[in-house]
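// run 5 | inverse folding | seed 20
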């Protein structure tokens, strides 16, 4: 079984899913620029160091360390590239199982399945929407019994909320299974006073345009262990052995981050604390505005840390609210407001229909009712008021 179905472009157009961008349309999570990015890029151009190496890269990696506490950082072309490198460092081989929560973006697992791994999707905990450690513990026990332990487990921070990493580490540590953290949505989040992802063998961050801060595309692979990051750095730059000629003992990737983008990312990282506060304030305004509406709930904040509320994720009970999630999404769309259903569970994706798994009812229930609301920190209060009024107007009560 491979998960590389041939690409067949859909005949149907995407009209209605991607309405025209217009100045008045409110987007889900657009980049929030400071005005200082252009000067930073110009500074790199003036220096001549525009390759994926040099002072802009080391400056960006130092800024990631300053923002997260991870001592070792590799700047990468994307969060997905960072995850691919993590799987390479772990030597994931064809037929190996890699476990992940089913409630996440496909990039959590896509690089592993492209390496021939078999994904196994576990359900999430309704109290955090992240990987259920109790289910993980039971599944690991069963897998050990059939001598089929996974080669890695991926914990995922969702919508700015850290996974319950300590419980996941304890469950996996019992069997010697390494844990990777997909912290692409977790930048700025904490658990037990440390940065999200800290404690995993390797963690991946994303600086894509829709994330809490952006480099205009980019990522980082971070760890406490310098050797793991050194090995990833080697693989990220074509796996060149030390020799005067080009010599390779393994095949690598071209996964370095451009210096121009690193400069943008460094400017943006300086804003991270303000962006976390801003996203949380946006969530608080939604929660207060809908406190009296029947049938509206929100993603709970887990007790083990501070969530960034990268996206405000809301649940709509169709009977009590008087409208289902999809009709509400269309109502918002018609009012020039972009919203998105929460992650469609990976076990329900056509590409993974044959993948093994455990549970899935929680993720399916979240998908049936969950909607992400515009959460960008560049949004004005007047714009958020327009969103709030549209949702209040849609409520039957
Ligand atoms: C954004 C995201 C990624 C991928 O990051 P890119 O930088 O876009 O490659 C991976 N996992 C999750 C959960 C994400 O949200």
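// decoded
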């Amino acid at each position: 079984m491979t998960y590389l179905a041939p690409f067949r472009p859909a005949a149907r157009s995407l009209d209605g899913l991607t309405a025209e961008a217009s100045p008045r349309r409110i987007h889900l999570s657009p980049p929030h620029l400071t005005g200082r990015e252009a000067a930073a890029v110009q500074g790199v151009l003036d220096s001549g160091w525009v390759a994926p190496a040099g002072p802009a890269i080391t400056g960006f990696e130092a800024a990631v360390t300053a923002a997260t506490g991870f001592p070792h950082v590799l700047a990468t072309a994307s969060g997905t590239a960072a995850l691919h490198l993590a799987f390479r460092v772990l030597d994931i081989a064809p037929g190996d199982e890699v476990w992940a929560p089913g409630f996440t973006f496909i990039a959590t697992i896509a690089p592993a399945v492209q390496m021939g791994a078999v994904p196994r999707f576990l359900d999430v905990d309704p109290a955090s929407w992240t990987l259920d450690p109790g289910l993980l513990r039971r599944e690991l026990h069963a897998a050990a019994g059939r001598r089929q332990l996974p080669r890695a487990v991926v914990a995922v921070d969702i919508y700015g909320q850290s996974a319950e990493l300590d419980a996941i580490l304890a469950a996996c540590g019992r069997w010697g299974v390494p844990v990777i953290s997909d912290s692409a949505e977790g930048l700025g989040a904490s658990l037990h006073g440390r940065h999200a992802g800290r404690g995993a063998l390797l963690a991946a961050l994303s600086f894509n345009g829709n994330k809490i801060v952006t480099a205009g595309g980019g990522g980082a692979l971070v760890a406490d262990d310098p050797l793991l990051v050194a090995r990833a750095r080697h693989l990220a730059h074509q796996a060149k052995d030390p020799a005067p000629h080009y010599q390779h003992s393994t095949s690598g990737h071209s996964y370095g981050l451009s210096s121009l983008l690193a400069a943008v990312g460094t400017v943006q990282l300086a804003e991270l604390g303000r962006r976390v506060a801003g996203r949380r304030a946006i969530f608080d305004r939604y929660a207060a505005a809908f406190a009296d509406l029947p049938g509206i709930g929100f993603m709970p904040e887990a007790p083990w840390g501070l969530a960034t509320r990268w996206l405000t994720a809301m649940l709509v009970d169709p009977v009590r609210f008087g409208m289902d999630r999809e009709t509400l999404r269309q109502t918002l769309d018609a009012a020039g407001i972009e919203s998105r259903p929460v992650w469609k569970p990976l076990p329900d994706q056509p590409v993974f229909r044959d993948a093994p798994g455990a549970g899935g009812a929680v993720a399916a229930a979240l998908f049936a009712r969950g909607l992400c609301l515009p959460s960008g920190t560049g949004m004005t209060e007047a714009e958020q008021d327009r969103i709030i009024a549209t949702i209040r107007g849609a409520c039957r009560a």
